[in-house]
Amino acid sequence: MPSPSGDLATPTIDRRRFLLTSAGGGAALVVVPAVAGWLPAADAKTAVQAAAFVDDYRTNVVANQTPETNAVVRILGGFAKVWKTGGAWNTGTPLMPEVLRANMRYCARVTAARTDAQAKESFIVDRQHQSYSVIAGLGPLAELYRTGAKAVTSITGAPDGTPAGKISDTVPAGAPAGSAIGAGSYDSDLGQVARLVDTVRGPFASGNPAKFAFQYPRPWRMNEDSEVVDTGAKDAFGFPVYDSRVSVAPQLLRQRAETPAEDGGFPSGHTNALHLAALAYAYAVPERFQELVTRAFELSHTRIVAGMHSTVDVLGGRVMATALAAAALADPANAELKAAAHAQALAYFRQHTGTTADTLYAYAHSAGTEADPYADREANARTVRPKLTYVLTRQGRDEPLTVPKGAEVLLETRQPYLTAAQRREVLRTTALPAGYVLLDGFEQWGRLDLFSASDGYGAFDSDVTVTLDAAAGGFDAADTWRNDIRGEGGLTKRGTGTLTLSGHNRFHGGTVVEGGVLVGASANALGQGDVRVVGGTLRADKVLRVRGAYVQEGDTRLELPLRRNHGPALEVSGRVVLGRGAVLSLRLDPEHPPVAGSTVPVVEAQRLRGQFDRIEVNSPALRAVPVYTTEGLSVRLLRR
Q1: In 3D, which of 127, 192, 182 has the Cα closest to residue 152?
Q2: Domain boundaries in the chain?
Q3: pLDDT for 27
Q4: Could you point out which of 11, 333, 352, 628 has its C-alpha 20 to 30 Å from the C-alpha of 244?
Q5: What is the DSSP letter of 137?
């Protein structure tokens, strides 16, 4: 199994000269020419000729430390525009000093504001096996996983001060027989999942070759032997310019490496390991995909809080982990393992929760925020979004993204009802814009936003047809797209399953329901175009707006809510055409239901033609009498 340590060694500038440049502004440091002359000119040439990362990831070994020879060094080439490697660990040239100044100031600000509790948390994350740390992202399934996988840790707390010596994660005394640190034991009920996590974190997933290649120092090493002067100026964050010192959490002072030349900062090994583990778990347990991604971002941030890494280090670790996870999952050699791990996790959790494939997702999200720190999606988004770019600012014009080869495998179990090409479109349309220097390296893996991608398309740039199968269960049977979908294309819903749209959508190509259920969970769920229901059911959770025409025909259903003293449930800007076989099903609002004898507006349109074959109400005590006009429909509720 891999070592619990995610940060091992690297090299990297003259600490005093770099710090003063960072603190006071001015010209970039010019020092010894870089040993690796490939930064950055040859990187562009290499990128043209290089193999795709997923086909070349096994070149990531310590013997290979140039973009010509190492796929990881190549995809991290965006950093070569910021930093030129020197001939020793403490030499180098900031090529974009404004980025590195902002980087140091951010780290100084965060460590200065660090609480005792945060220092202790950062110690636990530093010393605990990363694969174990990520398990908490499973929420209500976490303890079941630990038991089933026989996963244990000896790092459950942190001392108040500085420990006397090095501390490592081990199997604690008294642990059940066969227990293992990290993801758990291969000889367990979840052994295939544990094996998948370790495989994704395998021999070609180390951050050390890139650390040696870039030789960028950890932030705390830039403090040593430095004089700091208060200039009276404030930085972009409102902090004094002199406040450029980064303090390491007291609990970690003796956990640091002692050989500077073997202890570089970029990329962060812990961050790499945390994201690799999270994406492996997310493949096996996609019901918690977004929460596991959030967990990895949150844990990675503790590397900055600890004073052990800087923002650029953490960004680099995430970029390489995204690519490495995709490469391992796309590798044909791991095809049987990943399928077995996913099947094993589903069977185990169903058995131990009494759920089905259709109800496991609800169980996995059944706890409140007190028991599940990731139960609030909006809070998760607030955690992740600023950490996608940290101190980086956009420069230049946006460029379209070609999704890296194989990246779609990361969504394979989360969106199994989509084709590989469609999953690539999800990744493309939810990606970050170009212009963030560290994220724009070869193949631009850093632009992928897996948190957003797990919520479906970000745009319909052409027409999208999606088919869900109710009999298949899980996400194959039902899913929700929460993003605000833009674009000129439209959506066609097929199959027997259910798709829910909950974003403020602005796509213009229209919506067609041909089968199953399409749920509009927001007023603007159906975008800007026409809506046609020619099969299956269109359901509105709230008031639903159609910006074009609405047509319903054949054996179809429209399900709308009814609320007392409220406007029409369906507002149509254009005309409404109702054909033979169309059914209207009305659901009384449980909190504000209309009463018997009242007349409630249902549909408002520019013009209405035709009638529903049947109107139903989900109340045994009431029946609905339609009142049609040329511009809409109301119902009079009468007692049966």
Answers
A1: 182
A2: 15-354+370-388, 456-639
A3: 27
A4: 11
A5: G
Q: What are the tokens at 225? A: 């032997």
324 closest CA partner among 7, 76, 127: 76
Helix (H) or strand (E) holding 513: strand 511-513
DSSP state of 63: T
Rounded to 10 degrees, what is the CA torsion of 132, 133, 138, 144? 40
The number of beta carbons lying within 10 Å of the beta carbon of residue 420 is: 12
Residue 325 in tokens: 């996870």
Q: Quickly count: other Cβ atoms within 10 Å of residue 125's Cβ.
A: 24
What contacts 167, CB < 8 A, 6 or more positions away?
127, 155, 255
Sign for the CA dihedral angle at 421, 425, 431, 436 comes to: positive
Q: Residue 493 forms beta bridges with which residues?
A: 466, 513
**Whether 65 contacts 76, CB under 8 Å:** no
**CA dist., res. 519 & res. 525, Å (int):** 8
| Residue 21 binned pLDDT confidence (cut-offs 50, 70, 90) | very low
Of 354, 340, 366, the C-alpha closest to 287 is 366
d(CA 491, CA 508): 10
pLDDT at residue 46 tops 70: no
Instruction: Tell which residue, 563, 555, 483, has the closest CA to residue 525.
Output: 483
Q: Could you tell me how many residues make up the chain?
A: 640
CB atoms under 10 Å from CB of 175, counted, come to: 16
Side-chain half-sphere exposure of 614, counting CA atoms within 13 A: 9
Could you write out the DSSP letters of every residue in 176-189? PTT-EETT--SSST
Please say if the pLDDT value at position 39 is more than 50.
Answer: no
Q: Report the DSSP pairing between strands 622-629 and 632-639.
A: antiparallel
d(CA 268, CA 308) in angstroms, rounded, equals 9
DSSP three-state, residue 444 = helix
Instruction: Give the C-alpha distances (Å, rounded to integers) separating 79 from 84, 104, 216, 221, 611.
Output: 9, 15, 10, 19, 64
pLDDT value at residue 226: 42
Q: Beta 582-588 vs 575-578: how paired, if at all?
A: unpaired
Q: How far apart are CA 281 and CA 44, in angstroms?
A: 34
Residue-wise pLDDT for 327-385, tens only, equals 999 999 999 999 999 999 999 999 999 999 999 999 999 999 999 999 999 999 999 99
Cα separation, 418 vs 425, whole angstroms: 10
3-state helix, strand, coil in the chain (%, to 5): 40, 15, 45
pLDDT, the chain, mean: 90
> Reduced to 3 states, what is the DSSP secondary structure of residue 120?
helix
Provide the 3-class DSSP secondary structure of residue 501. strand
Dihedral angle, C-alpha 377, 378, 381, 386, nearest 10 °: -160
Q: Which residues pair with 626 in a beta bridge?
A: 635
Q: What is the CA radius of gyration of the chain?
A: 28
Cβ proximity of 244 and 112 under 8 Å = no
Coil, strand, or helix at residue 370? coil
Note if the pTM is more than 0.85: yes
Whole-angstrom Cα distance, residue 178 to residue 215?
Answer: 40
Q: Which of 542, 549, 546 is nearest to 610 (CA)?
A: 549
In what order do the strands lie in the sheet containing 464-468?
464-468, 491-495, 511-513, 531-533, 550-552, 575-578, 607-609
Scanning 354-442, the segments in alpha helix (DSSP H) are 360-364, 377-384, 420-429
